[in-house]
Design goal:
Layout (H helix, E strand, L loop, with lengths): L16 E2 L4 E2 L21 E6 L10 H20 L3 E8 L4 H18 L4 H21 L3 H27 L3 H11 L1 H12 L6 H21 L7 E4 L4 H13 L3 E4 L2 E4 L1 H6 L16 H8 L6 H5 L7 E7 L2 E6 L1 H13 L3 E7 L3 H16 L5 E7 L2 E3 L2 E2 L10 H7 L2 H9 L7 E3 L1 H26 L13 H22 L4 H24 L6 H17 L22 H26 L2 H14 L5 E6 L2 E7 L2 H26 L14 E4 L5 E4 L7 H27 L4
Parallel strand pairs: 3-4, 3-10, 4-5, 10-11, 12-14
Antiparallel strand pairs: 1-2, 6-7, 7-8, 8-9, 12-13, 15-16, 17-18
Helix pairs in contact: 2-6, 2-7, 3-4, 3-6, 4-5, 8-12, 8-13, 12-13, 15-16, 16-18, 16-19, 17-18, 20-21
Length: 720
């Protein structure tokens, strides 16, 4: 393929596992002499990719965002940067032990609440639920989960106390009863399910819950600007394919029936010459805690475990009380759906780091047992964990942050930038520091785009667009191509977006220095060169999904709640206002009308920020006009107002110093002064060089100007 710079592209590398080689890779890299593996799809530029989707029984959280935003970035880079034709499949698990249990619990709790139990009965039931909960608490060994359960127990006991007191005094029972009912929902739901769960057999109860949460999941993904999959599979729609898949595994000799269920025979599979079990995490084989979590909440009773020939075996099909047909095991669902769509071998299989064992190892074994091959997946990609301010995040620990709540605090772009600033395969800590870094990066890039847009708005004729390049332009252009090459190399090396964003930051810093130098020299920067750089950066951010809509340059500015391109609509009018204001200010300064200058400043500082508009005045240069986020501009204004009194006090103190006295106190630098107070000799008695004397003369003249302004202000009463 041809790379972004127009030459032979180094091969792309991605970090993951190559299970058919029975080894784990720390990273995919490119180039000679590196320790990694080159990404080579099976069929030229076509890439087949299956991604494990969510089990839809609750709200999507930031752990989901970690995986799906990361895979969205990788998918976009493969498709839009490297030019691969990516066929992306994802599943929805809408048949699962967690879903069945949660649906039953929700149904039973709603029935219980609708009956409006008397306060005495509610207290008795809560105490019974607490008793059952205490057993669960004693059996819990995980310290984080134990701590979470203890907090729940404590909260319920506290909520019960007011009702107990109200019962004794026979007042306020209805109000405090409702509070207890809300606090004890999880305990009561679990208790009701243990007592009455087997009686809930209406299938519509189990289909409504996943349908609702799947819809919410898709809305969350759309809000995060995550591309939809090319194909979405639901377990409930693939039951016939799963049944056929299970039957063939049994026919091939790797499955067995037991007490109405069907299990995968891991020992038989592992002993086969052409197969190997536990390719991804061989050290985890036999980890009963992980295996039982993989089997599901409703499938780890002593009776169920005794049905297996080996504790390592996993359920292909589960017998289900109240359902004569049973239901599929978790791992076989993905095997059957992915195998049906992608066949005997796919290029990429993705999922969270915690899915490696037993889920992906069992998927791999089952599918290779079905297809009788040893290369069902060529590359496994696993996204890193997400922690909350350094702590493990988990639904079971009830410390998760939903995507909707996260989007109330930060935009989809800011969340994506936070992910881009970290490796997709490493643990990401979702904290205020992480998000502050993302906000600062967004602000830094946006300021550059706004500055370039302002330069491009300056009217020039056609020939004026092409200006002679000096050394500064040639140096900036060389830096531009160096950074493009570095970005390309980073993307080839494990899609290293963290390095890419740093290279982009360095390129913008270089541009800012160039623009500052031109500004100091009262010269316009080279339009064409800056436009090329800004367009390249826009292109890269669009590839990463950090620019959500079509944008010719930089971050688009939209009207609130509309698709209106606010920038192209209002900027001509703002430009006219800016030019009119500049003309008025010039006349006000010449005619010495301070009231008009104050009104002009009020327009800039007080009125326009309320509309999301920033005017930047620069001595000797046209005013820069920028459209920005209203809330961000108001925060900036407030910060300036807090700093302004300190700045003004310091400026006033400096203005009060007569120029003849400004250097006299610097006896540690100078030993002799002329009649005006200008230094003539250094501390060693040597006469100052002409260059140094010239610099001091400029400082003297600047102070002379400040001091005159101070004296005039005193005369007019501006300073008290």
């Amino acid at each position: 393929s041809e790379d972004a710079q127009g030459g032979a592209a180094p091969p792309l590398g991605l970090s993951g596992h190559r299970p058919h080689k029975y080894r784990s890779l720390s990273s995919w890299k490119h180039g000679p002499g590196t320790h990694g593996d080159v990404f080579i799809p099976q069929h030229g530029k076509k890439v087949t990719w299956y991604c494990c989707g969510p089990t839809v029984y609750d709200a999507s959280h930031m752990g989901h965002a970690r995986s799906y935003i990361s895979f969205d970035i990788l998918r976009r880079v493969l498709r839009d940067y490297f030019g691969y034709d990516v066929f992306y499949c994802m599943n929805i698990t809408d048949v699962d032990d967690k879903i069945i249990r949660r649906a039953r619990q929700n149904y039973l709790f709603e029935q219980y609440r609708e009956k409006q139990p008397p306060a005495a009965q509610l207290l008795d039931d809560v105490h019974a639920a607490l008793k059952l909960f205490s057993v669960k608490l004693r059996e819990t060994t995980d310290p984080d989960k134990k701590q979470m359960l203890e907090r729940i127990q404590h909260a319920v006991k506290l909520a019960a106390e007011p009702l107990e007191r109200a019962m004794q005094s026979d007042t306020g029972a209805a109000v405090t009863g409702q509070a207890l009912l809300a606090e004890a929902k999880d305990l009561l739901s679990d208790w009701l399910d243990c007592a009455l769960g087997s009686e809930v057999t209406d299938n519509s109860i189990f289909s409504q819950l996943p349908k609702f949460w799947e819809e919410e999941f898709h809305r969350d993904m759309e809000a995060l600007n995550v591309l939809p999959p090319d194909v979405l599979t639901r377990v409930s729609e693939y039951v016939p394919e799963i049944v056929n898949f299970v039957q063939k595994i049994v026919d091939n000799g790797y499955g067995y029936a037991s007490n109405g269920s069907v299990y995968f025979d891991t020992a038989k599979f592992a002993s086969s010459e052409r197969h190997s079990y536990g390719k991804l995490v061989p050290e985890a084989v036999g980890d009963q805690k992980a295996l039982q979590e993989g089997e599901g909440d409703l499938s780890i009773s002593a009776d169920r475990l005794s049905e297996k020939r080996s504790p390592n075996d996993c359920a292909l099909w589960k017998a289900s009380p109240g359902n004569p047909d049973g239901r599929p095991g978790w791992h076989i669902e993905c095997s059957a759906m992915a195998g049906t769509l992608l066949g005997a071998s796919m290029d990429i299989h993705g999922g969270g780091f915690d899915l490696r064992f037993p889920h992906h190892d069992n998927e791999l074994a089952q599918s290779e047992a079905y297809f009788e091959n040893d290369c069902w997946v060529r590359y496994f990609l696993h996204t890193g964990h997400l922690t909350i301010a350094g702590c493990k995040m988990s639904k079971s620990l009830k410390n998760f942050i939903t995507i909707k709540d996260a989007l109330k605090k930060h935009s989809a772009r800011q969340l994506r930038l936070a992910f881009l600033m970290h490796s997709w395969k490493d643990t990401l800590d979702y904290s205020s520091n992480t998000m502050e870094s993302a906000l600062q990066y967004e602000k830094f890039m946006n300021e550059f785009f706004l500055n370039v847009k302002d330069i491009l708005r300056a009217p020039v004729d056609i020939t004026g667009r092409f200006e002679k390049w000096e050394d500064e332009e040639s140096e900036l252009n060389e830096s531009f191509y160096d950074k493009k090459a570095a970005v390309h190399e980073a993307l080839c090396d494990n899609v290293d977006t963290r390095t890419v964003l740093e290279e982009m930051r360095a390129l913008v810093s270089r541009c800012n220095l160039y623009m500052a130098a031109r500004k100091a020299a009262r010269r316009r920067p080279n339009r064409a060169l800056l436009e090329s750089i800004a367009l390249y950066l826009t292109h890269m951010l669009t590839i990463f999904g950090a620019i959500e809509e079509e944008s010719s340059l930089g971050f688009p500015v939209r009207g609130p709640g509309t698709s209106l391109d606010l920038e192209s609509t209002v900027m001509p009018y703002l430009q006219v206002l800016s030019e009119f204001r500049e003309g008025v200010r010039k006349i006000a300064r010449e005619q010495k009308v301070p009231e008009v200058l104050q009104l002009s400043d009020a327009l800039r500082d007080d009125i326009l920020p309320e509309l999301g508009v920033r005017f930047e005045d620069h001595e000797g240069l046209p005013t820069v006009v920028k459209l920005g986020d209203r809330e961000a501009l108001l925060r900036e204004r407030e910060e300036k107002r807090q700093v302004r009194p300190v700045f003004q006090a310091a400026k006033l103190a400096k203005m009060k110093i007569p120029p003849s006295e400004m250097f006299l106190s610097e006896s540690d630098k100078y030993s002799k002064f002329d009649e005006n107070g200008l230094p003539t000799h250094d501390t060693e008695g040597k006469e100052l060089s002409k260059g140094r004397a010239k610099k001091l003369r400029k400082l003297f003249e600047a102070q002379e100007k400040l001091y005159k302004e101070y004296l005039q202000a005193v005369q007019t009463g501006s300073f008290q």
